[in-house]
Amino acid sequence: MAAEEKLGVEEFSRRLEVALGDNLVALVLFGSAARGTHVEGRSDVNVLAIVRDATVAALHSATPVVAAWTRSGQPAPLIFAEVEWRAAADVFPIEIEDMRDAHRVLAGRDPLEGVTTRRADLRAELEHEVRGKVLRLRTEYAAAAADGKALGRLLVHSAGTFFVLFRAVLRLAGGAPPSGHGALVREACATAGLDAAAFDWVLQALDGKRVPDLAAYDPVAGRYVDAMEQLAEYVDKLKG
């Protein structure tokens, strides 16, 4: 396969199913491509593969297909052994519930059927993830603050991760997260007491609208980082 080949998800699914054969239990599309918020050239196409045998030797047959997929610009699929997936509900409740909300089975069976998560586990992972992501955001802001273009890239690239956490916040509050970015931000900010206006620039950029270039130490970026710091404070106060 040529390194520059653009491999679509349907073709990738077909090739991976052939390569893995009976070892494949499920292949699932999730994330923005399943949610309807995918932006061509900017968003990743996320795939989950569940196999019976996830040893190195058992995955060798899939290596050429996965390599072609990553060369086309997409992240490698998440690969779980079936037994690992069944035990993952208490470790990855945010990811599992996010998949449950928006996923499409490409091959095999639906791996979300029969999988349940606990609120206490969701809250524990949310606190861990928010703190880690805010720490990384703060660190990357410190490195990018003097470069307006770098600040803009930071906001756009970090937003998707925080939107996942926003959806988890709304689930903990007993709500059903909306699929659109704008509605998600408004509801999450209302729930957590954040300034929704802090996300106006990044929402417009994600929608493909023309946005003003950010300047060095731009207050737009500062308000965004401050809002994420406040999100961490809100999550810290949540009860399990």
Kindly describe this structure.
By secondary structure, the protein is an alpha+beta fold. The chain folds into two domains: 9-108, Beta Polymerase, domain 2; 119-237. The chain contains eleven helices and four strands; from the N terminus they run H-E-H-E-H-H-E-H-H-E-H-H-H-H-H. The chain has helices spanning 9-20, 32-35, 56-59, 63-71, 82-86, 93-101, 119-144, 148-172, 181-192, 200-206, 219-237, and strands spanning 24-30, 46-51, 78-81, 103-108. It has a four-stranded mixed β-sheet. It is globular, with a radius of gyration of 19 Å. The termini are far apart. The relative contact order is 0.12. Mean pLDDT is 92; it is low at 1-6.
Short description:
It contains 11 helices and 4 strands, in the order H-E-H-E-H-H-E-H-H-E-H-H-H-H-H. By secondary structure, the protein is an alpha+beta fold. It has a 4-stranded mixed beta sheet.
Distance between the termini: 50 Å
Number of beta strands = 4
Q: How many domain units?
A: 2
Q: What helical percentage do the residues reach?
A: 55-70%
Strand content is: 5-15%
Poorly predicted residue ranges: 1-6
Mind describing the biggest β-sheet?
A: 4 strands, mixed
The residue-averaged pLDDT reads 92
**Structural class category:** alpha+beta
Which oligomerization state do the chains in this entry correspond to?
single chain
Question: Any idea what the radius of gyration is?
Answer: 19 Å
Q: Helix count?
A: 11
**Helix and strand sequence:** HEHEHHEHHEHHHHH
Overall, the morphology is: globular
